[in-house]
Amino acid sequence: MDSPILLLENTDQATKQALENVRKRKVKFDRFKLRHNLTIWATIILATIFLTYLYFTVASIYSYSFAAMFSAFVNDSNNFTLLVFCVGMYGAMNLLKGKKDKAEKEYHELRCEIVDRSKDFWKKDEEWKNRHLVFEMMKNMYDINLYHEKK
To answer: How many domains is the chain built from?
Structure first.
């Protein structure tokens, strides 16, 4: 468990565990979000390189005939290799988008559950009055908003 969550006062162990779980889900979501953004940029850059290579090696030289362009495209093995890389990067980008969306859904559901069950987590009057300190710590340290359900 992360040390700022362990050091919380006026919270029981179950509440600390729920806060730790939402922190872990946020880290997982952020990691997939970063990876997805990196694959988007890698796909764009690779596609740009491929299209530029295609223009200079096929389109500009054999522009007089489609059949000649197609023949030149098929005869150069670099075209097939770059095409496979572009399609592979596009597939990886879509795969990571699905994982990112799943991680975001899990994180958001757990965060909303904590918001909904806040009366159960902080039952005593003293705990209820000091819960804003926990909310502020989670917002400042981990960028997790527990004040309301909306993102």
So the answer is: 1
Q: Are 20 and 2 in contact (CB under 8 A)?
A: yes
What DSSP state is assigned to residue 58?
I
User: Distance (Å, rounded) from C-alpha 10 to C-alpha 56?
Assistant: 68
pLDDT tens track of the chain, all 151 residues?
Answer: 667 888 787 788 888 899 999 999 999 999 999 999 999 999 999 999 999 999 999 999 999 999 999 999 999 999 999 999 999 999 999 999 999 999 999 999 999 999 999 888 888 888 888 888 899 999 999 999 998 887 6
> In terms of Cα–Cα distance, which of 26, 25, 30, 23 is closest to 1?
23
Instruction: Confirm whether 130 is domain-assigned.
Output: yes
Does 3 map to a domain? no
Residue 90 and residue 127: Cα distance in Å, rounded?
50
pTM, whole model, 2 decimals?
A: 0.87
Q: Which domain holds residue 110?
A: 12-142
The CB-side HSE value for 33 (13 A sphere, CA atoms) comes to 10
Assigned domain for 5 exists: no
- Is 57 exposed, middle or buried, given 0-12, 13-18 or 19+ CB atoms closer than 10 A? middle
- Rounded to an integer, what distance in angstroms lies between the CA atom of residue 17 and that of residue 148? 20
